[in-house]
Amino acid sequence: MVARVNTVAFQGIEVLGIDVQVQMSGGIVAFTVVGLPDKAVGESRERVRAALHALGLALPAKRITVNLAPADVLKEGSHFDLPIALGLLTVMGVLPDAEIARYVALGELALDGALTPVAGVLPAAIDALANDRGLICPAACGGEAAWAGPDLDVLAPANLLALINHFKGTQVLTPPKPRLQEQDAPPPDLRGGTGNETAKPPLEVAAAGSHNLLMIGPPGSGKSMLAARLPGLLPPLDPAEALEVSMIHSVGGLLEGGRLLRQRPYRAPHQSASLPALVGGGTRAKPGEISLAHQGVLFLDELPEFPRALLEALRQPLETGKAVVSRANHHVTYPARVQLVAAMNPCRCGHLDDASLACARAPKCAADYQSKISGPLFDRIDLHIDVPAVSPADLSLPPPAEGSADIAARVAVARAIQAERYGGFGPYPAGRAVRTNAEADGELLEKVASPDAPGRALLTEAAERLKLSARGYHRVMRVGRTLADLDGVEGVRRRHIAEALSYRRIAPGR
User: Fold this and answer.
1) φ, ψ at 194 (rounded to 5°)
2) d(CA 214, CA 320)
3) Environment class of residue 146 by beta-carbon count within 10 Å: exposed (0-12), middle (13-18) or buried (19+)?
4) DSSP E strand stretches across 190-348
5) Could you tell me the CA-to-CA distances from 207 to 139, 295, 367, 415, 499 in Å, in that order?
6) Is the bond into 317 cis (omega within 30 degrees of 0)?
């Protein structure tokens, strides 16, 4: 007899169906797992054997062969423990094969038979619902699986014994309920950041249109403070975005307690982060920081201190909204539609504009330091602003009257205008839904962001004088569209183009 159990493998957030085939036959006593398993899958033999022993079940003295089909797809992860155990219990006659065939199973087994959390339950649940199957997963992941929809039959036992009792009719497993991530402490308020009032309007523009932002200023001028307060200006994730972001975190094993995310991600990797950690990769092609920040903010402090190769690897994801991890036998693609916020000093010592504090190599040191950022990467940043040093007189001023809530209300209105505008165009291009001005491109950008005649003339003249690339030209149009949305006007006018150009500067060090 051959027992079959449905499970899944992952390529990025894409789900691949796996058929776990378990056979017992005569011959030399052995327990073999075939089908291109990695080390974690191969070690499942001992975990499954110990879990069954904890239930008082011993494997028959037969030759046991477990095949994970299709055999040419690499099987990674410990979530194959549960389907292998269910296959053995089915072939031993403990569980009914017809009932097991209705479910997709994934979960890791402890030596005492308990089911421990695994990554990827949310995309597996969505795939199971699409294929008219139920899902069996650990109890800790039940709240995550329940978000796939009320029509999905989810069994989330705490241990293997509870699952056996459920199928035998001696115990009923309660369907899990969807769970949301606990509400984190609110981000710091802009009212608490005294000084640098000139940097707050472009921060509002960046939040309204999801534009990339680069802040340049001396140490202690408030660049990191402004970046930390940006999440407080952004609207919460809508249901579709929350599901999309949570799927990435689920594959990465970062959903705490199976709770769906409700706040936009804010990721701030250190300069010592490796290339796989930032872009994605490693032995199991896990999502990197740029994908974990999908639909949120990726903050890179001290931008020139990041390795050059790492910064160059950001160019393609920032342009396409996707991070492609290439491996020898396949390619894994993760969504990476992020808002890049970066901060840097004007030079290594940071005091380029203060002759009393600047080093002896100024201004040459500034050219050398800023040239670590390549022109193509610099060109992909929509807003470039100078953040001047905060004087002691500024620190003694009372807190500003306008806080994060006031600015967030205007940002929400501008975002609503964009959602209504792009909702009428449908998926564009190649099935991708455009949500913000920063994502508009090509013909769509020309339709929604073409300035009036005076604005077009100003943009054309500025493009010639500043030597703007085609990318820079279009990014000015996107920022102008956001400024018009903040003003609540239909068309992009000359003043919007002029302000957008004020946030554009020639690449540093050139």
Assistant:
1) -85, 140
2) 19
3) buried
4) 213-216, 266-267, 280-281, 286-287, 297-300, 322-326, 331-335, 339-344
5) 38, 12, 30, 9, 16
6) no
Higher confidence at residue 187 or residue 343?
343
Rounded Cα distance, 154 and 174, in Å: 9
Q: Which residue has the tokens 């956001």?
A: 482
Per the prediction, the chain carries an average pLDDT of 89
Q: How far is CA 397 from CA 187, 189, 195, 441, 458, in A?
A: 22, 17, 8, 43, 38
- What pLDDT is stored for residue 402 in this prediction? 82
Q: Which residues contact 76 (CB under 8 A, 6 or more apart)?
A: 9, 10, 38, 40, 41, 284
Comparing 368 with 174, the larger pLDDT belongs to 174
Provide the pLDDT for residue 159: 96
The residue behind tokens 């999905």 is 152
Do 390 and 221 form a contact (C-beta atoms < 8 A)?
Answer: yes
In the predicted model, is pLDDT for residue 430 greater than 70? no
Give the whole-number percent of the chain exceeding pLDDT 90.
64
Q: Are strands 266-267 and 297-300 parallel, antiparallel or unpaired?
A: parallel
How far is it, in rounded angstroms, from Cα 486 to Cα 479?
11
Burial class (CB in 10 A: 0-12, 13-18, 19+), 485: buried
pTM of this structure? 0.88
**How far apart, in whole angstroms, are the C-alpha atoms of residue 373 and residue 303?**
8
Q: What are phi and psi of 30, to 5 degrees?
A: -160, 160
Element (H, E) at 290: helix 289-292
> Looking at the chain, how many residues does it have?
510
Q: Counting beta carbons within 10 angstroms of the beta carbon of residue 272, is it exposed (0 to 12), middle (13 to 18) or buried (19 or more)?
A: exposed
Tell me the sheet residues that pair with 5.
20
